[in-house]
Amino acid sequence: MNAVIKLLPSPLHTRKIIKGINAKSGNIKIVDNLENENETLVASAFKVQHDFQRGSLVFFRVYRGKINVKDVLFNTTLNEKERVNKLLIVEADSHEEVNEVQAGQIAAAGGLKLTRTGESIHCIGWH
Questions:
Q1: What's the pTM value of the predicted model, to 2 decimals?
Q2: Backbone dihedral region for residue 33 (phi beyond 0: left; psi -120 to 50: alpha; all else: beta)
Q3: Which fold has domain 2-123?
């Protein structure tokens, strides 16, 4: 987890803009206002793990906005929509189920069947 915190810093401790590239068109999109949780969602999946009890869990960091349970997200790499069934805050062996994850937080999501390591997750309408 220390490596994740170092390599995927919180938006509160980084520059206030990041660049994203549309996989199909190649267009560059500038994402700013990272500290504003009312802006559209920008998150990055950094690990996928199979949990014996919960199935596939996608670990991610939220850079802007927030994710709620039952939100429909857009995977920009695959151009696919997916629904979040569960959100978990994971600490060592404990999993705390939550209804919302905000900018700067690291969490795991259940229900994202297509998302893989290194992919970007956004809210519907971002692309």
A1: 0.74
A2: left
A3: Elongation Factor Tu (Ef-tu); domain 3 (2.40.30)
